[in-house]
Specification:
Strand content: 15-25%
Number of helices: 16
Helix content: 25-40%
Radius of gyration: 21 Å
Strand order of the largest sheet: 3-2-1-4-5-6-7
Number of domains: 2
CATH superfamily of the largest domain: Glycogen Phosphorylase B
Number of strands: 13
CATH class of the largest domain: Alpha Beta
Distance between the termini: 11 Å
CATH topology of the largest domain: Rossmann fold
Largest sheet: 7 strands, parallel
CATH architecture of the largest domain: 3-Layer(aba) Sandwich
């Protein structure tokens, strides 16, 4: 029986963490010995990990260099056939730990963002250091899996990775029970659904560009009585609340915080909107479509155009253009895309399909 170890920092509420849980759970269904290696055994996604998956905790910050030594020591003891990591700094740590391990496992890394775009847009030192760290280490990997062609092209052009060593594989967004019926969330706008309700979801941070979405809401005529619920938490909450007040839309916007089960909200909303300035792969678009919820998205770097197939499954608007976003919102509320079309496109992002493709890379010699 082959053994796969998957290394990520923890199981906090991020899209990458949830995707890796979906993936390792699928591996475990196929007679593979699966181990989840965490820097810290914390986060709301812990209950989602299958009982068939063992969990090892390194008990240190993934940004502490000691994580490299502890991962190396674990690899020597555990002896997996394959090590899979996800996200830039954990990828760097995994590659350096593998280098120390002497007789290393096959090591595959998964990059989930357009590194140079994220580095430039975010402005933080931590993000600016990611591209040079990737340039120094990524060619040590046996193979690299990207979440879409935007990420692959950036790795080739700006990180200088050989294109032949990169595979683009859709995220494992949907599991068998992802789109089963959900009760209406305990929110008055959805419980008493007498007016259009828009959902947005993601961290309250610069990347998601919620100021443009709030400005778009201010441009939608009040008589349409549209409501916006933003699911997520983050450092920009106070600024967004202040902006909503200054725009005169505070009464039409609610930010109830992080939701572990966004499907319940999407299944009962009229529209999902992604206003991001950049993305890695916007899983929330797929999740919304899987719920039959119409979508509107910015044409941001990182995959929304590919997911929506050039706008076939929902309008694409320029990043930061509140007028265009408002127009797309009202037009889609008036004439939404056919539900069955949305469901069919979302099916391309099933965990089962993604796991099949991952395993072809991770265990190329195995007949799985």
């Amino acid at each position: 029986m082959p053994k796969i170890s998957v290394f990520i920092p923890d199981l906090r509420g991020g899209g990458a963490e949830r995707m890796m849980v979906h993936l390792i759970n699928e591996f475990a269904l196929r007679d593979i010995d699966c181990e989840l290696v965490l820097a810290n055994n914390t986060g709301p996604y812990l209950p989602l990990v299958s009982d068939r998956v063992s969990i090892t905790e390194l008990k240190c910050s993934f940004m502490n260099p000691i994580v490299i030594y502890r991962l190396y020591r674990h690899l020597v003891r555990s002896k997996p056939d394959v090590l899979l990591s996800a996200m830039t700094y954990p990828n760097v740590a995994a590659l350096l730990a593998r280098r120390l391990a002497g007789v290393p496992p096959r090591t595959v890394i998964s990059e989930r963002v357009v590194l140079t775009v994220q580095s430039h847009q975010s402005g933080s030192l931590k993000e600016r250091l990611k591209p040079p760290a990737a340039r120094m280490t990524y060619n040590m990997a046996d193979h690299i899996i990207s979440v879409n062609d935007d990420v692959s092209e950036d790795l080739v052009k700006n990180i200088h990775v050989d294109r032949q060593r990169i595979s683009s594989i859709n995220n494992p967004v949907l599991t068998e029970d992802s789109i089963s019926g959900r009760d209406i969330p305990d929110h008055p706008w959805l419980q008493d659904h007498t007016r259009p309700v828009i959902i947005a979801a993601g961290r309250l941070a610069r990347q998601k560009d919620y100021p443009t979405l709030l400005n778009a809401m201010a441009r939608i005529p009040e008589e349409r009585d549209v409501r916006l619920i933003i699911l997520g938490e983050g450092p920009d909450r106070a600024d967004l609340e202040s902006l909503a007040g200054s725009l005169g839309v505070a009464g039409r916007i609610d930010m109830p915080g992080f939701a572990q089960d966004p499907y319940a909200w999407m299944q009962h909303a009229d529209l999902f909107v992604l206003s991001s300035a950049w993305e890695g792969s916007p899983n929330v678009l797929v999740e919304a479509m899987a719920c039959g919820c119409p979508v509107v998205s910015t044409d941001c770097p990182g995959g929304s155009r590919r997911i929506l197939e050039e706008g076939r499954h929902g309008p694409l608007v320029p990043v930061g253009d509140a007028d265009a976003l408002a127009q797309a919102i009202t037009a889609t509320l008036d004439k939404p895309v056919d539900r069955q079309q949305l469901l069919a496109r979302a099916a391309d992002f099933s965990a089962r399909r993604s796991a099949d493709q991952y395993l072809q890379v991770l265990l190329p010699e195995a007949a799985l």
